[in-house]
Amino acid sequence: MQELPLIFDAHLDLSMNAMEWNRDIRLPLVEIRRRELGMKDRPDRTRGTVCLPEMRRARIGLCVATQIARYSARFSSLPGWRSPEQAWAQTQGQLAWYRAMEDCGELVQLRTSAEVKAHAALWLDAAPEQMAKLPIGYLLSLEGADSILSWRHLERSRADGLIAMGPVHYGPGIYGHGTDDEGPLTSKGRELLKEMERLGIILDVTHLCDESFWDALAHYNGPLWASHHNCRALANWNRQFDDDQIRAIIDRGAVIGMAFDAIMMVHGWTHHRSTARDFNLKMEKICEHIDHICQIAGNARHVGIGTDLDGGYGTEQTPMDLDSIADLHKLTAPLTERGYSNADIAGIFHGNFLRFLGEHLK
Ligand SMILES: [Zn+2]
Questions:
Q1: Would you tell me how many other CB atoms lie within 10 Å of the CB of residue 186?
Q2: Is the pTM of this model over 0.70?
Q3: How much distance in Å is there from the Cα of 307 to the middle of ligand 1?
Q4: 229 CA to middle of ligand 1, Å?
Q5: CA atoms of 306 and 2, how far apart (whole Å)
Q6: Which of 126, 147, 310, 312 could be cross-linked to 88 through a Cys-Cys bond (beta carbons 3.0 to 4.6 Å apart)?
């Protein structure tokens, strides 16, 4: 049997699933789904695709895992806490869950490039029976910065191991404007970028609306990536990058994590209405996104995996042939057919993000 290549997933909301979806993701997928039978509070109940045993089975030994909490003053279609202080407290609860998972040996936090390198080596060499016992390495990131109350809070987060941050999420935020919104960074947003640069925090450009995106690139000089982001040329929604944006961040050395949310993979998906069958959507569609970026770059060094597979949806919004995060390995065959070498594929699965972290994480 051919050994599975290592996968680095640059975007998972593990703690959000534990603390807001109330999922014990140490359990097998079938058991998590069974416990949600009859629950109707969220569209993805009984349809989740991510848990720690499935990650181990698929050799997903390293990931970027988020803290996430929006601030939203008014009741609106967007979820959010009524004060930034509540958002901060929510992220601290999420951090406490990561710590609890470290205490029981399920996860291990990676803070430096040396730790990332050593942990990757452990997973690269592990035999399948060893993988079941290895802790999964996680790097902490913050998706949307509304919860950062002051620069003192940012320093505290950095001391807790925060290595990357996206200033905004959906809609308007304290620091700028996110997906489905318009507008530049706020003056506080520009200050935030300076503080991030000072503290050595990677800028995650995912979720910045176009104007805030260009503003951020103009005002931030540190390393940047896009943790979970596809191509607008293939999925026409402002959530994705147009070709100019792709070109600009490749010029800055970024790696872009491919997301497996169906809404981000095809033109014309209607939220809560469309099904993968309507589009005959299979995982290999992501190869078109990968190829689009590689053609712009002229090489395969700027694409990685950032699945977002536990980002508030399940199999109702994934490709037809993706039932578990372990199905990511189905990408190898279509990439090979397109002429990607084993080295290219290893780069996409883990090497490109690991190289980036080796260069930029202190
Ligand atoms: Zn997201």
A1: 19
A2: yes
A3: 10
A4: 8
A5: 24
A6: 147
